[in-house]
Amino acid sequence: MNAPVETPLLGRPLLEMRQVTQTYSLARPTLLGTRPSLTVLDHIDFDVRPGEAVGLVGESGSGKTTLTRILTGMEKPREGHVFYNGADIWDGDGERWRTFRRSVQVVMQNPRSSLDPRMRIGVSLLEPLRSLKIEGDHATRVFEVLDQVGLSRQALERYPHEFSGGQLQRIAIARALMPGPKVLIADEPVSALDVSIQAQVLNLLKDLVNNLGLSLVFIAHDLSVVAYTTSRVSVMSAGKIVEVGKPMDLFVRPQAEATRNLVGAILTVESGLAGNALA
Amino acid sequence: MMTMSKSSRIPVPAPPGVPAPTTASKKRRRLPRNASLIIGLVLTTIFLAVALVSIFYLPSNPNIPVIRNRLLPAGTPGHWLGTDVLGRDIIAQLMVGARTSILVGAGGATFSLILGTIAGLAAAASGKMTDEAISRGADIMLSIPGMVTALVLAATMGSGALTTILALTAFFTPSFTRVIRSAAIGVLNEDFITAAKLYGRGKIFVLARHVLPNIAGVMIVQFTLYFAAGILTEAGLSYLGVGVHRPSISWGMMLNEAQQQVGVSSPLAIWPGLAIVLMVLGLNLLGDGLRDVLDPKLARRAS
Amino acid sequence: MTGTQLNALEVKNLVVHNTALTAVRGLDFTLPAGGRMGLVGESGSGKTLTALALMGLLPMGWQANGTVHHDGVDLIAQSDRALSSRRGRTISMVFQDPLSSLDPVRRIGVQVSSVIRRHTNVGKREAESQTIELFRQMSLPRPEQLMRAYPHEISGGQRQRIMIAMALACYPQLIIADEPTTALDVTVQKQVLRILNAAVKDRGCALMMITHDLPIIAAMCDTVAVMYAGRIVEMGPVAEVFRNPRHHYTKGLLDSQPTMDNIALDGSSRLASIPGMVPPLHSLPAGCAFHPRCAAATEACMTRVPPLDDGSRRTACWHPIEASVAMVTA
């Protein structure tokens, strides 16, 4: 089902899901009936290698959100395993869990909601270090990360409401970078931003992968945004990964029906002007 | 009788077929909100100051009858609001009454706030079973009329300030629990909570450092509104004769005593009545004003 | 319908403000009958307040000045009552979020047919059969059953089609659609746009499409107005504006669209992006509001507001991009 895609560099997967199946039990239809269950993820294999940027696309309801929750350790899968650096994250000591927590960080969709409105930016940035008890010169680390995301030091004293959406997303990215993660999981990181700001944030994510050697998992509903940021894209539909490929191949020769739907859904200025986009 | 808060928000009327605007940047006029905050603050501060002064200074002893001074009219030198049927100074009684009202109202609201916060946060952050247990428990307690609780407590423990505070606590805690639970659930659904969990913060830290600061506004507003409701309830209980007893004095008790003189000296009922109205009005205005200033969502929108 | 109405909308010097802020700072444009105009802008550009001002639905505290001629009257001068009898009849609106736009406790059929009954003189039966016919035109499955459904029982795409049906029910002269597909799944977006497009075309009704999404405007509209910080900065036929943008902001927006053309195979490509951020309303820059983000800005841009010139291609810029320069990047 999952055609192997050559990845020239890279070697062993850094973060990996093997045969993950997740089911939720629903309410009983009758008083004495058995609980029906809903399979949200069906034997999913998914991985990202060191320094690699991979994408995950799918319609809402395809299982993207659940996959993200399992990949970040927010949820434990019913069946299957999640490995970080070859070790099962659900089968180890506290030290292994802590390593996983520092190494896999997340950027979420809505930057207004992802920062505590009552906390100064500086405090929010230090939180991951304090929580994960990471030693070292915290101030230097904060300045270093601010530089990486292109924010000035004045930001530290301020509160979230003093910033625009695009700046807040940079701050959220900075917080994710603080513990020095190896994998960044970005869940629809630009869909809540203004058009002129989206490009800035996409470029920033791309730079982080190139300059810091981070691995990136980019989850979105919009294939063209994912294609711009990643080199390998998995397409999800109804709880399964139905196609994996390079972005260009997915555009030009989509195999699965879900991929064809996603490619067909893309509107561009040129296709719109050509007058047949809505034909 | 409980919450006297009037929402000043009037939604844009949506005609049939045309739904109301959903995402417009809604901004409200600032003037009335600040006015209610200032008036509320002034009234509340005056009463707090009076209560404080009454501890150190009273114009005369409000409990000792002075028969030759019976029923002096307002404006009499030395007794500017007059005296009651036993010749006791009205101002002195009102001052002690302010102390009692504030003690009982604030006491009831404080204990309810503490218990309601613990129960509300537990319901919001624990599993479904705990939530159900706490929420249904609150529903059951809310279905028992507060006056009945107070009368039963007064009958079993004897009436007094402490009994009244306990009755108010039993009466108000479920409401605090509900409000704090729903506010906390709102905060717990925000993405910064998810982020905190992802860098390893535990439940207690999240509640203390993220949830509490973000619901503080709701808590303060709730506190002022129930402070006012507590004063009203206390007045009601004292009026019925199951509140505080002399040498303690409460405004409700003064009303009760004055009632026997209506027709003889009607102003006697006016003064404590006016004190209750102004104090409750002040707290409600303060609560409404604070709600607008402290609500993080409104603040975010206004910025 | 009274006589020949040449223009669906004539807006002159529209200003929308509250006591502290001015969000829309003087709009002038004309939308001919049956025309389709796109209004592009980012958050804070004033595009949504413009739409609400046209509908007479401004949130509390906001006020509109200027003139808006529609159907022979000035909408700004109309009473609330007159406006409310107009809404849904000669002018109607489709909002972003169809779930909060429908009454959750009334059946869909009742909601739509009551709009028809309010504005036309038909009985209950007739209104219901018109509603079913409308649902059919919106390609909604099993329209008879849908009549009895509640809003939460159907999908987002279906809800938005119902909103469109409701907006079209009384053959209005003008439909204002504010981000009608932003809340929908990508794969549903195109279908909803297609249905809106066809329905508007069939009825010959004018469309004002408000969105931040340039491709949608390219596909749906014949003219476009680009708004920035409460003013129109560029306006003209959609193909000309998008192929040869003359304002630097328009060009920046076009260049920051991720498309297959600017995705290099080796992943080394970078999107062109507009530096800086959209200025907040309370601290708009002097002169041209875009100058702090503009590479071509000069002294003049910082002090004087560029006027929107006249003609079919209108630009408010002291240093418009020449056609030849733009062709190179196209």
What is this structure's SSE topology?
The complex is a heterotrimer of chains A (279), B (303) and C (330).
Chain A lengths: L14 E11 L11 E12 L4 E5 L6 H8 L7 E6 L2 E2 L5 H10 E4 L13 H11 L6 H12 L15 H13 L5 E5 L7 H18 L2 E6 L2 H7 L2 E6 L2 E6 L1 H6 L4 H9 L3 H6 L5
Parallel strand pairs in A: 3-8, 3-9, 6-7, 7-8
Antiparallel strand pairs in A: 1-2, 1-4, 4-5, 9-10
Chain B lengths: L30 H26 L33 H36 L2 H15 L3 H12 L3 H28 L2 H8 L4 H37 L11 H9 L7 H28 L1 H7 L1
Chain C lengths: L6 E11 L4 E11 L3 E5 L6 H9 L7 E8 L2 E2 L5 H7 L4 E4 L3 H4 L6 H12 L4 H14 L5 H5 L8 H13 L5 E5 L7 H18 L2 E6 L2 H7 L2 E6 L2 E7 H6 L4 H8 L43 H5 L10 E2 L7 H7 L1
Parallel strand pairs in C: 3-8, 3-9, 6-7, 7-8
Antiparallel strand pairs in C: 1-2, 1-4, 4-5, 9-10, 10-11
Helix pairs in contact in C: 4-5, 5-7, 7-8
Membrane topology (chain C): Peripheral membrane protein
Keywords (chain C): ATP-binding, Cell membrane, Membrane, Nucleotide-binding, Transport
Pfam families (chain C): ABC_tran (PF00005), oligo_HPY (PF08352)
Written description of the protein model:
The complex is a heterotrimer of chains A (279), B (303) and C (330). Chain A is globular and about 50 Å long. In chain A, 49% of the residues are buried. The N terminus of chain A is likely disordered. Chain A is 36% helix and 23% strand. Chain A is of the alpha/beta class and 279 residues long. Chain B has 303 residues and is mostly helical. Chain B is built from 10 helices and no strands. The longest helix of chain B is centred in the last third of the chain and has 37 residues. The two termini of chain B are 35 Å apart. In chain C, the strands form 2 sheets. A 7-stranded mixed β-sheet of chain C has the order 6-7-8-3-9-10-11, sandwiched between helices. In chain C, strands 2-1-4-5 form a 4-stranded antiparallel β-sheet, covered by helices on one side. With 330 residues, chain C is α/β, with parallel strands linked by helices. Chain C has 2 domains: 215 residues, P-loop containing nucleotide triphosphate hydrolases (Rossmann fold, 3-Layer(aba) Sandwich), CATH 3.40.50.300; 86 residues, no CATH class. The interface between A and C is large, with 43 and 46 residues. Chain C: It is a peripheral membrane protein. Chain C: GO terms for molecular function: ATP binding.
